[in-house]
Amino acid sequence: MDTSENDKGVANSSKELDAGALFVLKSRGSWLHCGYHLTTSIVAPALLSLPYALSLLGWFAGVVCLTIGALVTFYSYNLLSLVLEHHAQLGHRQLRFRDMAKDILGPGWGKYFVGPIQFGVCYGAVIAGVLLGGQSLKFIYLLSTSHGTMELYQFVTIFGILMLVLAQIPSFHSLRHINLVSLILSLAYSACAMAGSIYIGHSKNAQAKDYSINERGWNRLFGSLNAISIIATTYGNGIIPEIQATIAAPAKGKMFKGLLVCYAVVATTFFSVAISGYWAFGNQAKGTVLMNFMPDDKPLLPFWVLLMTNVFTLLQVAAVTVVYLQPTNEVLEQKLADAKIDQFSIRNMVPRLIFRSLSVVIATTIAAMFPFFGDLNAVIGAFGFIPLDFILPVVFYNVTFRPSKQGLMFWGNTLVAIIFSALGVLGTISSIRQIVIDANTYSLFANV
After folding, report:
1. Mainly resides where (predicted)?
2. Dihedral, CA atoms, 157, 160, 165, 169, nearest 10 degrees?
3. Which of 40, 154, 269, 351 has a beta carbon 3.0–4.6 Å from 336's, enabling a disulfide?
4. Number of C-beta neighbours around residue 96 at 10 A
5. How many angstroms separate the Cα of 339 from the Cα of each of 93, 95, 207, 350?
6. pLDDT in tens, 398-411
7. Residue 357 exposed, middle or buried by CB count within 10 Å (0-12, 13-18, 19+)
């Protein structure tokens, strides 16, 4: 079999030959490539919702939650990396989240808890990405003509066709150049969003800024929980082990460097967009700050600025979507491909083409039928990203390294797990409540 030495090392450390690991999770990347993958999976157009999250929390609580989210996820992702490095040094390199759960917590945890949650989170991100891509295309269309007759589902379908092509990229490592461009695009549209907010906030037609929280009582509490779910989803990743699997052995220390690259971009983009957007629009901040740039179809910024911002967003969401397709691709490859023959043989190419295309068609159909998927995605974020990114890393670390119960590390990790478990449960309840409230506005193939 024609393969690199790194691929052989991965194969030799596995109990059985695995097409998903050998073909999709090729271990050939550097720490810089890892940084590109991490940045694309975290710094996504979801960050444009952060001004809205701050409007539900207020200045102090909003900035505090944003800061805590950055610190806790950076910490937990490093813990996850240390656990992966530890097992690799013992001769058993784990390449998937479900493998970690299986080896550390037991087979049932990987098969019935972590595996399904990760698949749901990642495929939900794919559906949301296709929907957001369609909405960006529609926004660009409405900029060019105010009397257009095309509807949202048509734009979602067009974006889905683009994803059909990108889904055929053979491996995670093959995305490294796309993800470098994605990193640059995220900086570009974040700069546009910040500049647009500051421009509108200083314009003579700027609305009076009100930073009070609109809701009261229980509605205010549930609004705060929704905001925390939004922030958790924005920082969420869910595929840290799969990204570390793309690093060429030995992987020790490389993930930390990749995380430094990623969080330099996170600090630059998240806080600038969140603070400038909330400063400009206050409690009138909408679900995404781009909606505030064009209220009632009346643009508040020059045409070219709006067009450029949406084009940058459109291109980057394509990269984000194909990154979150990788866990689905890996499962399909594991089940359908033959690892004993060449990756690009007819025997492996035909099933790959058919089933990757089918997964994109299903995601595109769901996105077109249910354009209110944002409400459902909030549930996925609370029920999925919080366990995967805030809770399980500290649990894995405590179980693997068994720090002293009298030490700060053990109780700090335990406290993180308890607090975010409670927030995950409350966030899920709050998100489901929001779905019930909005249910009367739902309709299939709605042109929103």
Report:
1. membrane
2. 180
3. 351
4. 24
5. 18, 16, 61, 14
6. 999 999 998 899 99
7. middle
